[in-house]
Amino acid sequence: MTDLLARRLKILAAPKQRALLSRGLRGIERETLRITPNGQLAMTPHARALGSALTHPEITTDYSESLLELITPAQNDIAQGLARLDAIHRYAVSAIDGELLWSQSMPCPLPAEPEIPIAWYGTSHIGMIKHVYRRGLALRYGRAMQCIAGIHYNFSVADSLWRLLQAEEGVAGSLRDWQSESYIAAVRTFHRTHWLLMYLFGASPALDAGFLRDKPHALQTLSQDTLYLPWATSLRMSDLGYQNNVQAGLMPPYNTLDEYMAGLARAVRQPYGPYQDIGTRRDGEWVQLNTNVLQIENEYYAAIRPKRVIRPGERPLEALCARGVQYIEVRCMDVDPFSPVGISLETARFLDAYLTWCALVDSPRTDEAQSAENSANFRLAVNEGRRPGLMLSRMGQPVALRDWGLELLEQIAPVAELLDAEAGGDEHRRALAAQRDKLIEIDATPSARALEAIRAHGGSFVAFGLEQSRRHAEDFRARPLHPGERLAFEAMAGATLAEQERMERGQSGSFDDYIQQYAARTPAQLCAGAGAG
């Protein structure tokens, strides 16, 4: 245990201070494709019974009209968040008229690229911004890649805990700046160790053979309809998925919030030749928001993001510039195909202990060499994480993945114990023990279990995915919502549709002018650091 972590845990061990640990917030965003009962992509529009994808706080769409995104409110206890996520799933399944929710991160069999429907958010200016942005994603990366699903885990430490640590450690300056830089330090630690999450929770070692659209690849054939890598943990996070080559090297290593914002601000302002060749319009219609490296900040496919809740019409960088970091969003988690809601409570408890450790442990500054090492370790864990005896690199020295992983769990253990002392029970310690078992026994990992299940289904990724989707649907339908809960969801859906209609009736000005105004809000002028370079 580092000296800084030991000192901070000692401060937080006092019962009065320990209570601060329970005041942070947690939230989950689960992506899932709607599919037909026979396992094909559902081509139907977003059901009105689900409400407005533009304005609903809990049920929306991501890239495709067929890709649902189910979002929990921020809660102090993730168990409450998972209970809400379960209720959202139960309502959604009842509202999609016999369709199923795909149980995997990698997509079901997809139709031809032009037939994959892009999400529609209505005719308001902000709705059209969201739609045109997704048209741009289709042109830049292909529609199939945008149908990959994941779990996003949102995590914050209570402001009052940061305030306590700032006072105890005698750090001058504003709480906002201290808190922001503390979150950036947590992100640095995350980047050094997030290979561990891929080993422990990666669950996409195989995919439908049609997904690659005849592109060259190094995957092996498992069956006529399935490709895989024998030791892979997460093809979703490999070069085949979200680690897009256009964005390789986009963000240099960053040690401060200003450096992070500077990189993003440059990317959303810097023209990119191939995108300039596409242009912004075809036949008078917008096909992408601009021709820059990134259309907007959210196009950057990061494994983790420092974030701040945005206000209506505000851009993410504006919010960070104006009010600092509020929470971190972990984006590299695969959908758990064995959990109906895509993530288990045990996984969430471990993430809470791990991310709290990231926030409290000493985090040395990073550089290009460290960043390259982090990326190499991550790629190894993604593509070969279950290979027996796999070696990673730590500060330039070889280290076995298993040994390093066990060392990290030992460092996280006192954090788990403190969280249990506050919450009562032993859920965090048991979650940690379950991860230790995976490091000792490779076959206990989700990727190994998924591959075993695929082989049991004749080597077919699609057959396994469809059976799990049907099982999950049966589970949800066997537990219908209570009448009061259902009425509340129906009322929320109706209110969001009405809100979208009000937005469409009340807007003024042209969409072209709106896009120009939106682009002008890139906050080069708001933060000196973001305008550098």
Automatic annotation (TrEMBL):
One of its GO terms (molecular function) is metal ion binding. InterPro entries: Gln_synth/guanido_kin_cat_dom, Glu_cys_ligase, Glut_cys_ligase. The keyword ATP-binding applies. It comes from the Bacteria. One of its GO terms (biological process) is glutathione biosynthetic process. The keyword Ligase applies. It catalyses: L-cysteine + L-glutamate + ATP = gamma-L-glutamyl-L-cysteine + ADP + phosphate + H(+). Residues 9-379 form the Glutamate--cysteine ligase domain. Pathway: Sulfur metabolism; glutathione biosynthesis; glutathione from L-cysteine and L-glutamate: step 1/2. GO terms for cellular component: cytosol. Keywords: ATP-binding, Glutathione biosynthesis, Ligase, Nucleotide-binding. Its EC number is 6.3.2.2. It is an enzyme of class 6 (ligase). HAMAP family: Glu_cys_ligase. Belongs to the glutamate--cysteine ligase type 1 family. Type 1 subfamily. NCBIfam families: glu_cys_ligase. PANTHER family: GLUTAMATE--CYSTEINE LIGASE. This is Glutamate--cysteine ligase. It comes from Noviherbaspirillum pedocola.
